[in-house]
Amino acid sequence: MKTFKAGGVHPPENKFSADAAIEILPIPKRAYVLTSQHLGIPATILVKRGDDVKTGQLIAKSSGFISANIHSPVTGKVFKIEDVIDQSGYKRPAIIIDTTEDIWEDGIEPSDKIEREITLSREEIIKRINELGVVGLGGATFPTHIKMMIPEGKNAELLIINGVECEPYLTSDHRLMLEKGEQILIGTAILMKALGVSKAMIGIENNKPDAIAHLSILSEGFKGISVHALKVKYPQGGEKQLIKALTGREVPSGKLPIETGCVVNNVGTAFAVYEAVQKRKPLIERVVTVTGKAAKKPSNFMVRIGTPISELIEKAGGIHENLGKVISGGPMMGKALTSPEVPVLKGTSGILLMLKEESAREKISNCIRCAKCISVCPMGLEPYLLEKLTFIENYEQAESQRILDCMECGSCHYTCPAGRPLLDYIRLGKSKVSFLVRNRKKQ
User: Fold this and answer.
1) Residue 165 exposure: Cα atoms within 13 Å on the Cβ side
2) Nearest 5°: phi and psi at 7?
3) How far is the C-alpha of 323 from the C-alpha of 303, rounded, in Å?
4) Which pLDDT tens digit goes with each residue over 93-145?
5) How far apart are CA 285 and CA 151, in angstroms?
6) What one-character DSSP code corresponds to residue 403?
7) Is residue 100 packed enough to be buried (19+ CB in 10 Å), middle (13-18) or exposed (0-12)?
8) Alpha-carbon dihedral of residues 238, 240, 243, 244, nearest 10 degrees?
9) Which domains does the chain have, with CATH numbers?
């Protein structure tokens, strides 16, 4: 069975919501649309208080090369523009919209009718993906049109579609593959055309046999697209690990996947590309899993961007009396929320509700030199050393020890018997080293 070789762990999967069909969540009475829900520069607001907006209307424009357009996920009136707390706990500019009857912007086709014929040229596809604000839905939220613009001197040979969903608990991609499989494959074909490649590989972990079987049958009608079962191992969904598992190629330290001739996109991104190109529909909604041992009804919802997370929790049965933490994302790479009132973003894949006893941190003790953190690191790093170098503020040596190669998967933290806060310190060290690198480039 295909997989990556270096490191990795196998946490309990806990895919409680795997059999829960996607439900359409009601449109919120008030939507909170952040202008920074993509990697890069926040979008520039185009509307003001009191303006009427339609569903799918452009309300904030891309502000730079790495940025993305933001469209209204609802119809209504702009209540106000002010800073609201995002999923990181910081206040960010947001457009707050009081909703009315759902009326779509002219030219958008929101129906479920499948459009198979791809009529746009390569350039037109990239332009439309850019205009309609599509970003990577696997977690990084990198603007998708940028990935289609291959740097001079590089060559794209292969498109890889990530259907791994290796984070414990999360099932949004799994349900999307089962319920929107043909649209995902059409989106894959669109991305192939945009990249100018003739081959695409869809990687899915073998704990999703129904999705593997479903897409394998559908792919027979698409030239150059193949489906591949992968061994269950976290973090198989990382770009570098997925490329290694499917092709045997390795992305060099500090480099991007294009160095191997590969471009990686998530299945959710492929679906969003299908809707953008074939339906002229902006990225204004996505599938979000609400799950966990503190979730009364584990569910998968199709949610409008800007919906308060509290509304998803309420629809999934409400707050458990023994709730310990609400986490955006999975238990390995997700972030604990300061409030359930923060809004859904383009990158929100799941909401994990954890019981108090399972969310409490282990007592921290001295490192016992067991080297487990080294053995599980998928990037071949020494997490114990990076933690120590950050603690003593030796950022120059941390850089030389490749701290920026850390993908923040949390495998080291998960496996540490001493409860060391390895990932916390490495994240801090990465931010400090990144700051040093940026200043060095300015000189």
Assistant:
1) 27
2) 70, -155
3) 23
4) 999 999 999 999 999 999 999 999 999 999 999 999 999 999 999 888 999 99
5) 30
6) G
7) middle
8) -110
9) 1-12+104-360 (3.40.50.11540), 372-442 (no CATH)
Q: pLDDT tens digit string along 260-282?
A: 999 999 999 999 999 999 999 99
Report the b/e string of 47-85 with b at 16+ CB within 10 A.
Answer: beeebebbbbbbbbebbeeebbbbbbbbbbebbebeebb
- Residue 143, preceding peptide bond in cis (omega within 30° of 0): no
Which of 418, 415, 426 lies closest to 373, judged by CA?
A: 415
Which residues lie across from 328 on neighbouring strands? 335, 351
Q: Identify the three-state secondary structure at position 178.
A: helix
d(CA 400, CA 18): 42
User: Using CA of residue 255, residue 346, residue 57, residue 82, what is the dihedral sign?
Assistant: negative
Q: Is residue 321 classed exposed, middle or buried when 0-12, 13-18 and 19+ CB atoms within 10 A define those classes?
A: exposed
Ramachandran area for residue 153 (φ above 0: left; ψ -120 to 50: alpha; else beta): left
pLDDT tens, residue by residue, 371-403: 999 999 999 999 999 999 999 999 999 999 999
- What is 200-229 written as a DSSP string? EEEEEETT-HHHHHHHHHHHTTSTTEEEEE
Strand 299-304 and strand 285-291: the pairing is antiparallel
Q: 122-131 and 267-279 helices cross at what angle (nearest 10)?
A: 100
